[in-house]
Design brief:
115 residues; mainly alpha
């Protein structure tokens, strides 16, 4: 599980206020999808069809919140506010190493205490 960063001024940003509530929700869904699946702010057409109608997609691209790509959309400035797939993966690996080392240290102490 990863986390998504949303600015506390999100709901009052002029770009957000310029689109419908349905478009706001689709924008949030795309953000969550990208964070969950580590897509670096990109959503492929297949998934996009489940998130936004063509009308909503046009609203979001017209508001410069989404940019059309060859096979879907890219969320405007996603990586300016959220970690990349590479950063999240590296962080998870570092946490795993720390936990493994701590577990080994704890096991060694238990074995010494059992003697």
């Amino acid at each position: 599980m990863s986390w998504l960063k949303i600015d506390d001024g999100f709901s009052h940003h002029p770009k957000i206020l310029s689109v419908s509530i349905a478009a706001r929700w689709a924008y949030l869904e795309a953000l969550c999808y990208s964070a969950q699946y580590l897509t670096d702010g990109k959503v492929a057409d297949g998934k996009l069809k489940l998130i936004a109608s063509p009308k909503v997609m046009n609203e979001l691209t017209d508001a410069n919140l989404w940019h059309r790509t060859a096979n879907g959309i890219a969320i405007h400035d996603y990586l300016d506010y959220n970690p990349s797939c590479e950063e999240v993966t590296k962080h998870k690996q570092e946490i795993s190493k720390v936990r493994s080392k701590a577990g080994s240290k704890g096991a060694a102490k238990r074995w010494q205490a059992d003697d």
